[in-house]
Amino acid sequence: MKKILLTGGCGFIGSNFIRYQLSEYPEVSITNLDKLTYAGNLENLKEFESHSGYTFVKGDITDQDLVNSLLKSNRFDAVINFAAESHVDRSILDSGPFIQTNIVGTQVLLDAARNHKIERFLQVSTDEVYGSLGAEGLFTEQTPLAPNSPYSASKAAADLLVRSYVKTFDLPAIITRCSNNYGPYQFPEKLIPLFISNALEDQPVPIYGEGKNVRDWIHVLDHCRGIDAALRKGEAGQVYNFGGNAEMQNIEITRLLLKLLGKPETLIQYVTDRPGHDLRYAIDCRKAEAELGWKPEMEFHAGLENTIKWYQENRDWVNRIRSGKYLQYYDQQYGNRLNN
Ligand code: NAD
Ligand code: TYD
Fold first, then answer.
1. E strand or H helix at 138, and its extent?
2. Bridge-partner residues for 175, per DSSP?
3. Who has the most CB within 10 Å: 17, 70, 140, 156?
4. Among candidates 222, 211, 297, which has minimal Cα distance to 257?
5. Which contacts (CB < 8 Å, 24+ apart) does range 332-339 have?
């Protein structure tokens, strides 16, 4: 797996994965195809701009001609699809872009991978496709898909498409499904980076409903290690779950964050619940442990402390996102070159 086409690499997990791959495997080269939506931040990978194993292509995964020409002019060993609209709340406001990118985009990539006989297609998916758990039980790879938000429905649709390409066309594809990630470079719209960024500015932290919903938190580097293991050791046609074995109610994690930040609990503000809000996610990742030799390594408190430290030290990164300045970086970096 030396030459990889990776999509969505300017987002949170994709940029962490690229950093991990290029530092772990000197022989690997990565082409990063990213549309640079609001969630794509080219600055996340600034340090690789002149790296010989890294190429950035601005473009949309739904653009069939572009995807096909990339696969035609490069002999990629693998395609890894991170690109997605990824925020549940946005999918409730407008599901359109979720259908386009998450479903149509995946179909375009699958067809191109099939036509160009790509040896490995890895679809980065989510535990949210399984729906919601009650107080007991864990999601296994056999749990039926029962998505409850437009986001998770679009990811489940993409997973089913991947499955169908395995069954119908023998496409050597793998699906990974991971629980909630946290860590550096996460866009400050998701719970952990939003609450850290707000609390650092003494702004309220908005908890949906009663804050009793449970998520299983995994450090992004553990997820990246899992995707890497699935890419190199996984079996075509299989699904692998990854989780952090760190279940927490939203109110618990919020109190912990405020404590670690030295901020008062008076910042907590209860707001109207998210419609269709899944109660609990929890992952059984014994298959990945047994078959890929993977397990989550980052202890949750240590991971959270590291993450807080990163946001404290990178307040400028958050400020540039909140002010919209990060969007200008592409023009600064590439505008003149494109005009030449
Ligand atoms: P993100 O929102 O931070 O980044 C998404 C990236 O995809 C951005 O760089 C964006 O510009 C790019 N993109 C969006 N539409 C595109 C298009 N049409 N063409 C090309 N690029 C496009 O997302 P993330 O949190 O890094 O998630 C990455 C993947 O992991 C997603 O598929 C998501 O469903 C999955 N996932 C995320 C989590 C999590 O906790 N964040 C957990 C499990 C699985
Ligand atoms: P989020 O980070 O959006 O991830 P997901 O919905 O994909 O699990 O939300 C994590 C949990 O935090 C979820 O139960 C919704 C809740 N939440 C809040 O209570 N307030 C917020 O402002 C946000 C963004 C999320």
1. none
2. 123, 239
3. 17
4. 211
5. 333/42, 333/49, 334/58
Give 96-116 pLDDT, tens digit per residue: 999 999 999 999 999 999 999
User: Strand 214-219 relative to strand 120-126: parallel, antiparallel, unpaired?
Assistant: unpaired
Q: What is the CATH number of domain 3-182+217-242?
A: 3.40.50.720
Instruction: Convert the pLDDT of each residue in 260-275 to its tens digit.
Output: 999 999 999 999 999 9
Q: What separation in Å is there between the alpha carbon of 230 and the centre of ligand 2?
A: 27
Give the amino acid at 160. L
Active site residue 60: no
DSSP 147: -
Residue 128 known to be catalytic: yes
Residue 139 phi, psi (nearest 5): -75, 130
Extents of the domains making up the chain: 3-182+217-242
188 C-alpha to ligand 2 centroid (Å): 11
Give Cα separations from 98 to 42, 93, 124, 143, 198 (angstroms): 21, 11, 15, 23, 27
